[in-house]
Design goal:
It is a single chain. This protein has about 80 residues and is mainly α. It has a single domain, classed as Orthogonal Bundle (Arc Repressor Mutant, subunit A), CATH 1.10.10.10. It is built from four helices and no strands. Helix 2 crosses helix 4 and helix 3 packs across helix 4.
Length: about 80
C-alpha cells in the first residue's frame, strides 16, 4: 500500500470517529450542507425543507456540529 493510500485511510478513520460524536440531525445537516453524500451542497433553506426544520434551526445545528468536529482535531 502506498503512503498516500495509508494517509487516506487514516483520514477516513478520523472522520468516522469524528462523525460518531454527532447526533443524527447534526450528521444529516453536515452531510447535506457540504455535499458529502455525493450530491451538491445544499443551502440552509433546502436542508431545512428536507428535514422539516427552519433555516435558522439548521444554522444552529450546523454550528453545533462544526464545533464538535473542531474538538476532534483531525490532522491532515
Amino acid at each position: 500500500m502506498t503512503n498516500n493510500k495509508i494517509k487516506d485511510i487514516e483520514i477516513l478513520n478520523a472522520m468516522i470517529k469524528a462523525f460518531s460524536k454527532l447526533n443524527i440531525k447534526e450528521r444529516l445537516v453536515i452531510l447535506n450542507r457540504y455535499g458529502l453524500l455525493g450530491d451538491s451542497m445544499l443551502t440552509l433553506s433546502k436542508v431545512g425543507n428536507k428535514l422539516h426544520l427552519t433555516r435558522e434551526r439548521i444554522r444552529q445545528i450546523e454550528d453545533s456540529a462544526l464545533n464538535k468536529l473542531k474538538e476532534c482535531n483531525i490532522k491532515k
